[in-house]
């Protein structure tokens, strides 16, 4: 009876299987039942595909000839001697048939000793498991030996004995077998060169047939099992993938496989729920074999060491696995998760995938009760198998480790890196995964990341071999899982060299992608990561001091990319920068939703309060639109979507104040993290458009309060601007801001402006010499000149006043125009003319001028003492109200026109002050007539005066502010003519003072006191001397390159209340200044 089980196998997954099986079994058994009475059977031979230990069939005495038993190989195979005859007859190359040869003991032994590093973990587990069952069954094995011998003897007499007692035979250990049970294949175990080879009968004949008929030679494997592969190997079976990979690499695997007890075990549903049966079927369909002498069995399963039957079978399985992997990689979830582990580093996506797979359990019964970390190895198998699907990387496991350890490790190496044995700097990453068991998963992730801090993997020092190591810490407790990654840099990692291009803009990523030169201020990110209990910062600095650039930098570091392209554009931006030097910082890289608002573009021409509210709605609408494209919007509830759309569409009835807080709530559902909120140029909305109505200011204040105070979904927030506007009151409003300004900044004092060391690096990078100028009239070197011109700022920190902070914009503009120069430097007033500060001009014009004397002192280089409440903010309507001098001082300071000095500087400044300057700026008229002794006494009084606690010393930072002279400081009673002259001066663009006079103030000429002459000729002569000085010192030379058509030089001479002005245009004659409204020229 050939293929007796085919009818059953063909119907096993049909609806009528049960009915058919009952019928078929009755017919089949009836043959042998009748024989008991009639004795008409002489010999019965039955063939089939599978050996099923069906209870009802055990009533029949059958002798089993199974391919799993090496004893009967000669009946199913071509022997070595037969193969030699075939080769001789058909004149074939004997090496062609090696792939059809069964693996012999030598091959197995050599396989055991090589290339097991990637799966040694499995070997340890199952070798322990095998020993466990062998020890438990030793007595049973000994007891069964005699029975087996007797059965074999009965077989030789030709009787129909039932030898399907597989449990007895499978319990026999090789050491306990007698001589009759020795397999012919192993003629002499001590002489490994003596062996008998067997060749797969079907494959060899199929090959010879193809050669004779000159047709394509195709391996004709079991069609049933082909179908089986296609139907069963569809979903992601992480254990099967891992085990088949192990089998293909090593040629063997030790597995616990079930014994086929009935045909029900072949149903698809059963196989899906009991995946171990697949290994049994691989054996039954003759793809795998095992040495029956080394089997241990217990109840309904046995532990066997499986080997691939032949090399062509190995190729078949390899191809099927490849096809399976390719189909799996078409699954979007699988593909995205692989990318998340190897490219994008998306923690949430990895967590979602692992949780989904671990819950399915894939129908594997445990069977490893003795094994402590079975659950750990399921997580390990998921990640190992998932990454094994990728054709772009190689998965490597540790060679030696303890199976009871709570740690599992994997190394993921890009295949192109393996081929070249080098890393393409900043382009290819190596991924190191550590899996940890911990009942507190977040803590377990950190423990995993801190494990093996030196990054040594199987005695390989990863930091010495690779430039960049992405380290994942994956922790779980039962079905709870968490993932955190960090970035480590190798010892030889080199930061990408920056180009010699200067960038003065505000987009950090743009500057990085264009490889522009930037001063590394990423230490600010480290400080934000390590902050203690601070939720919101208000950072104020003068314009163009790096506020927007730093905020853009923070956004680029923390914001989670939306897709692969965005990630590729951003993933290398921070490589080698200060923040990346601490691997723990990189645990926060690209992890958070970042809400970014910029109020700089508030350029509405409407002059009412509603324009400000409309502007805010527009900016908030934009950020909602931005995030709608970055999330799966349809996953929000219907109510959430409706509210979102109302805000995005700027609908009436939307409560503006709570919009950003609502956005944080929605984003938490997708990112599983709290939001970072960044608002730039917040004080721009407090412009002349904001009138005195408190309702609008109240709306704005509540907006900031709801956004930054009591927001449970806020990770941290930063608000930047020039001025400290009062957003809060003592017990209400946004009163949780930690304020950071040049007056007091305990956190970011070195993150804005350039330090001395940073300046030195910039000059060195652009080959700007620090040597002395060659001109006779300039003695200072370039560094000293830059300090006087663009330095001088200070910031009060928790360690005292930090001095000599440089204006970053002016320095970068200077470098841009002076690359590779060693002399003839161009030091222009870059910052002062980078923006028209109309607000400040209007403020000064409309204010009370009782501070004129102090202001004049500042212009003349003095340090002044002022009563100044550094903690009180500027009123929101400071542009509208009649300001006192205190309000104006604050505006001047926060705008960057003043900086703080200490008492030592103040006293040194008094000591060095010119006597005549004291007379002019003291506001004490009697000093004009007194002698030098009394002036010295006046100085001493200033030095000895005790200042109150609210006194702060201020000065003009540097020489760039000499153009401060254009600010109208005369009082409101000025004449019509003087007003006209002042306004015409203010309207002139690019106005510059005398450059580099060494004192930081304009030239002031005093008439010779001996020549007290007010006639016009004397004044005219003085005017000509002044104009000649301009030409002699070539003050006008540096402006000629700007293509001005005309340069006019003025000489101004005065004596008491009389004044004469003369002018010279280009190279023309000197003439009096013409004023058509007044004939009086003096």
Features:
1082 residues, five-stranded mixed beta sheet, five-stranded parallel beta sheet, 38 helices, 13% strand
Written description of the protein model:
Helix 10 runs antiparallel to helix 13, helix 10 crosses helix 16 and helix 14 packs across helix 15. The chain has 1082 residues and is α+β, with helices and mostly antiparallel strands. The strands form 9 sheets. Strands 7-8-9-12-13 form a 5-stranded mixed beta sheet. Strands 15-16-17-14-20 form a 5-stranded parallel beta sheet, with helices on both faces. Strands 3, 4, 5 and 6 form a 4-stranded antiparallel beta sheet that branches. It is elongated, with a radius of gyration of 44 Å. The protein is built from 38 helices and 28 strands.
Quick summary:
The protein has 1082 residues and is α+β, with helices and mostly antiparallel strands. The chain is 40% helix and 13% strand.
């Amino acid at each position: 009876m050939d293929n007796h089980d085919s009818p059953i196998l063909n119907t096993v997954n049909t609806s009528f299987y049960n009915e058919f099986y009952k019928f078929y079994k009755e017919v089949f058994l009836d043959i042998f039942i009748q024989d008991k009475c009639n004795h008409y059977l002489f010999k019965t031979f039955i063939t089939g595909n599978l050996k099923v230990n069906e209870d009802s069939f055990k009533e029949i005495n059958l002798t089993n000839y199974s391919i799993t038993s090496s004893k009967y190989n000669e009946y199913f195979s071509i022997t070595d001697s037969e193969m030699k005859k075939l080769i001789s007859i058909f004149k074939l190359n004997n090496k062609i048939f090696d792939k059809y040869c069964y693996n012999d003991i030598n091959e197995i032994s050599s396989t055991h000793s090589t290339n097991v590093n990637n799966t040694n973990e499995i070997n340890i587990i199952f070798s322990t498991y095998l020993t466990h069952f062998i020890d438990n069954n030793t007595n049973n094995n000994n007891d069964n030996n005699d029975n087996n011998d007797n059965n074999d003897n009965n077989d030789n007499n030709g009787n129909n004995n039932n030898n399907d007692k597989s449990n007895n035979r499978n319990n026999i250990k090789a050491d306990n077998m007698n001589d009759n049970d020795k397999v012919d294949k192993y003629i002499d175990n001590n002489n490994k060169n003596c062996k008998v080879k067997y060749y797969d009968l079907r494959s060899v004949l199929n090959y010879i047939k193809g050669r004779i008929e000159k047709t394509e030679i195709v391996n004709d494997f079991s069609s049933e099992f082909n179908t089986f592969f296609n139907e069963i190997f569809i979903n992601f079976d992480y254990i099967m993938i891992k085990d088949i990979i192990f089998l293909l690499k090593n040629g063997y695997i030790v597995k616990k496989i079930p014994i086929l007890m009935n045909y029900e075990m072949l149903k698809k549903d059963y196989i899906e729920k009991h995946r171990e049966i697949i290994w049994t079927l691989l054996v039954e369909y003759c793809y795998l074999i095992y040495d029956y002498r080394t089997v241990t069995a217990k109840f309904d399963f046995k532990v066997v060491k499986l080997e691939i039957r032949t090399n062509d079978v190995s190729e078949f399985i390899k191809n099927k696995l490849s096809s399976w992997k390719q189909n799996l990689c078409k699954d979007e979830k699988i593909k995205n998760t692989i990318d998340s582990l190897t490219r994008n580093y998306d923690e949430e996506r990895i967590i979602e995938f692992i949780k989904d797979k671990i819950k399915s359990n894939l129908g594997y019964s445990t069977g490893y009760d003795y094994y402590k970390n079975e659950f750990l190895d399921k997580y390990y198998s998921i990640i190992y198998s998932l990454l094994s699907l990728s054709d772009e990387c190689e998965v490597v496991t540790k060679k030696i480790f303890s199976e009871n350890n709570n740690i599992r490790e994997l190394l993921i190496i890009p295949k192109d890196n393996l081929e070249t044995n080098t890393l393409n700097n900043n382009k290819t990453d190596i991924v190191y995964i550590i899996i940890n068991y911990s009942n507190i998963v977040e803590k377990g992730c950190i423990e995993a990341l801190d494990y093996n801090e030196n990054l040594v993997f199987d005695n390989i020092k990863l930091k010495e071999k690779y430039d960049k190591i992405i380290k994942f810490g994956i922790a779980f407790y039962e079905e709870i899982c968490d993932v955190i990654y960090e970035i480590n840099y190798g010892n030889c990692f080199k930061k990408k060299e920056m180009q010699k291009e200067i960038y003065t803009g505000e987009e950090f990523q743009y500057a990085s992608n264009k490889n522009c030169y930037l001063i590394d201020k990423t230490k600010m990110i480290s400080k934000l990561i390590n902050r203690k209990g601070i939720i919101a910062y208000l950072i104020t600095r003068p314009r163009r001091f790096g506020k927007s650039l730093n905020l853009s930098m923070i956004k680029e570091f923390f914001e989670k990319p939306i897709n692969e392209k965005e990630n590729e554009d951003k993933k290398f931006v921070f490589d080698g920068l200060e923040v990346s030097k601490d691997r723990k910082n990189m645990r926060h890289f690209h992890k958070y939703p970042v809400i970014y608002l910029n109020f700089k573009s508030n350029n509405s021409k409407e002059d009412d309060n509603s324009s400000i509210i409309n502007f805010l709605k527009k900016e908030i609408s934009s950020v909602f639109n931005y995030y709608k494209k970055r999330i799966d919007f349809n996953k929000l509830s219907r109510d959430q979507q409706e509210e979102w759309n109302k805000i995005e569409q700027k609908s009436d009835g939307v409560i503006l104040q709570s919009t950003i807080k609502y956005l944080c709530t929605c984003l938490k559902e997708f990112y599983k993290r709290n939001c970072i909120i960044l608002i730039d140029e917040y004080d721009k909305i407090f412009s002349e458009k904001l009138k005195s109505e408190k309702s609008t200011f109240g709306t704005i204040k509540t907006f900031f309060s709801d956004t930054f105070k009591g927001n449970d979904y806020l990770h941290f927030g930063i608000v930047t601007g020039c001025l400290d506007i009062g957003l809060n009151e003592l017990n209400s409003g946004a009163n949780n801001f930690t304020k950071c300004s040049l007056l007091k900044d305990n956190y970011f004092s070195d993150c804005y402006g350039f330090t001395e060391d940073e300046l030195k690096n910039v000059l060195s990078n652009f080959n700007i010499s620090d040597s002395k100028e060659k001109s006779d009239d300039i003695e200072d070197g370039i560094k000293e000149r830059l300090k006087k011109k663009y330095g001088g700022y200070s910031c009060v920190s928790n360690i005292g006043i930090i001095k000599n902070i440089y204006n970053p914009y002016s320095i970068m503009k200077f470098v841009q125009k002076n690359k590779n120069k060693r002399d003839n430097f161009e030091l222009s007033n870059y910052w002062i003319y980078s923006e028209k500060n109309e607000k400040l001009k209007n403020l000064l014009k409309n204010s009370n001028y009782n501070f004129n004397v102090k202001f004049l002192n500042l212009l003349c280089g003095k340090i002044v003492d002022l009563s100044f409440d550094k903690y009180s903010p500027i009123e929101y309507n400071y542009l509208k109200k009649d300001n006192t001098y205190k309000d104006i001082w604050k505006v001047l300071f926060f705008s960057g026109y003043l900086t703080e000095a200490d008492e030592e500087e103040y006293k040194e400044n008094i000591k060095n002050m010119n006597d005549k300057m004291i007379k002019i700026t003291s506001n004490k008229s009697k000093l004009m007539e007194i002698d030098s002794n009394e002036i010295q006494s006046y100085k001493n009084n200033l030095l000895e005066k005790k200042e109150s606690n609210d006194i702060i010393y201020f000065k003009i930072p540097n020489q760039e502010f000499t153009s401060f002279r254009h600010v109208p400081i005369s009082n409101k009673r000025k004449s019509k003519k003087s007003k006209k002259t002042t306004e015409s001066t203010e309207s002139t663009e690019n106005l510059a003072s005398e450059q580099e006079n060494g004192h930081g103030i304009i030239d002031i000429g005093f008439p010779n006191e001996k020549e007290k002459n007010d006639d016009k000729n004397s004044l005219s002569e003085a005017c000509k001397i002044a104009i000649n000085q301009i030409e002699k010192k070539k003050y006008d030379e540096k402006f000629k390159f700007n293509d001005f058509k005309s340069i006019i030089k003025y000489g101004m001479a005065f004596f008491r209340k009389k004044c004469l002005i003369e002018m010279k245009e280009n190279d023309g004659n000197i003439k009096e200044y013409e004023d058509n409204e007044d004939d009086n020229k003096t």
